[in-house]
Amino acid sequence: MTFLTNIANILAKYWQVFLVQGIGYTLLLSVIAVAGGAFFGSLLALAKRSKLKILKAIVAIIVEVVRGTPVLLQLYIGVFVFPMIIPKLSSMPYIYSVSIVLIINSSAYVSEIIRSGIEAVDVGQMEAARSLGLTHSTAMISIILPQAVKNILPALGNEFIMVVKETSLASTFFVGELMTAYLKVKGYTYLTMECLAIVGVLYFTLTYILSKILKAFERRMKAHA
Amino acid sequence: MLDIKNIYKNFGDLHVLKGVSTHVEKGEVIVIIGVSGSGKSTLLRCMNLLEEPTFGEVWMEDRLMTPPDPYLHFDVIRASKTYQKLVESGLDDAEAIKKIKDEDLLKEKHPRTEGPEYAALLKKIYDENGIDINLGRQKMGMVFQNFNLFNNKTVLENITLAPVKIGKQRLKDAKKRGEASGKTPDDIVREANEKAMKLLTRIGLQDKANVYPSTLSGGQKQRVAIVRALAMEPDVMLFDEPTSALDPEMVGEVLDLIRDLVKDGMTSVIVTHEMGFAKEVADRVIFMHDGVIAEEGTPDEVFNHPKNPRCKEFLSKVLY
């Protein structure tokens, strides 16, 4: 009983820290990461499909390195190592460096999502378009990409959910998202269990709503196939 | 109309075509037969460059679609440094050319090593005869084994897509050149739609105009795929095993449509396993074996009096 009353008391006093600041920053970071990731990820995917071998190799290295190292390590590098190398960056607030690292991280994943989404479209579709005398780019724009989007969007939604959870790592640098909110309120109240429960429920609610939206979206896409 | 000159096609170490030459006359119907893996489909796909030939040239209506193949031009061979070295070493003209051809001594992908004269000649041949690959393909309709209808387009859009896109592009190009054209983009769309509906009516699928291909049967899909190619008003139709992926009861409707086209004088190259159909429509039958044309002639010559033992063996297995 005291557990629930404690939670009620914490929420009454600190609801702004959790709901406004915490969720606000978590969503902000996720949206920035996925939007930036979608943009740069598309560029990476494009580069990966290009005929230039050097470009391909560079992109492959970036993607492999980003995917092969933990996000936390990448965040440390972004926040501490880069400002050491480039002193101008040292005055930059952590939230910026964290955002940039998350964008780079999600670009790598998104580029793979886009590449596999394009490759999953039957090669016959491109052949049929080219056999009619359409150019490669016209075929890509009118035929391949619209079909690839159907493969890409659901996976992109999953990536978004992953990123929402990954932003919790940014609490290492106290940037204000949900996990930071937990650290703060725990520091004020010394009530670890209650704070964890609140944050846990909030994370779950966020991702649950997102996945429901995604499902509805997928259903609509399927109806159009 | 369509000229295939000494086509070789390698997939890595696999040599699928080993020097195939043939000529398709206007109005002619050629049927290509042969066992699986003999290179029939690859030959057909080389004709409109869906597969780029490793060596050889494809000419469509006297325009060169592939890069020029130095081995097919004596003057180019003679301009090469390799040839000059051979002649200096004492070989006469014919011997030198034969040696170069037999031993594949020209590395045509690096024309710089053969001197500027050689590169200039190749470029001149292409400049004089070359045609944009897309222009060439617009004159060739291709029908695939797996139909390959555009899944994200309705039946009508499938048929009108290429005529509209290419029609609009031509309009733009004409405008750039300052030529007056009585047409507007809307005219092109309207004309394409009218023609598509006419074609759909011809195959009895006018009521399917606005459905997506996934709702059609295999036979319907293939018939739509055929009229999609026809909408570009091609000069040649290439059929790549058009009935192989169909349920038996649907083969007839597709063959009927092809038969109709052929009767109307459509120049066609057909790869098929339907021997009865081949006998009936073909002006010339080509039997492919192991990457070369092993037997070629009228249906009567090939089916009733085959000379090549491989061809005899193949026919004895498929004709009963």
The level of helicity of chain B is 40-55%
Greatest interface and its residue counts? A-B, 18 and 29 residues
Supply Rg of chain B: 22 Å
Q: What would the CATH topology of chain A be?
A: MetI-like fold
What gyration radius of chain A follows from the Cα positions, in whole Å? 21 Å
Distance between the termini of chain B: 35 Å
For the biggest sheet of chain A, the summary is: none
List the helices and strands and how they pair.
The complex is a heterodimer of chains A (225) and B (320).
Chain A: H1 2-49, H2 53-68, H3 71-85, H4 94-119, H5 123-131, H6 136-166, H7 178-189, H8 192-223
Chain B: E1 2-11, E2 14-24, E3 29-33, H1 40-47, E4 55-60, E5 63-64, H2 74-79, H3 81-88, H4 93-103, H5 116-129, H6 133-138, E6 140-143, H7 155-176, H8 185-202, H9 218-230, E7 236-240, H10 248-263, E8 267-271, H11 275-281, E9 284-289, E10 292-297, H12 299-304, H13 309-318
Parallel strand pairs in B: 3-8, 3-9, 6-7, 7-8
Antiparallel strand pairs in B: 1-2, 1-4, 4-5, 9-10
Commentary on this structure:
The complex is a heterodimer of chains A (about 220) and B (about 325). Chain A has about 220 residues and is mostly helical. Chain A has a single domain, classed as MetI-like (MetI-like fold). Chain A has 8 helices and no strands. The N and C termini of chain A lie far apart (about 50 Å). Helix content of chain B is about 45%, strand content about 20%. Chain B is α/β, with parallel strands linked by helices and about 325 residues long. Chain B contains 13 helices and 10 strands. In chain B, helix 7 packs antiparallel against helix 8. The chains are: A mainly alpha (about 220), B alpha/beta (about 325). Chains A and B meet through helix 5 and helix 6 of A and helix 6, strand 6, helix 7 and helix 9 of B.
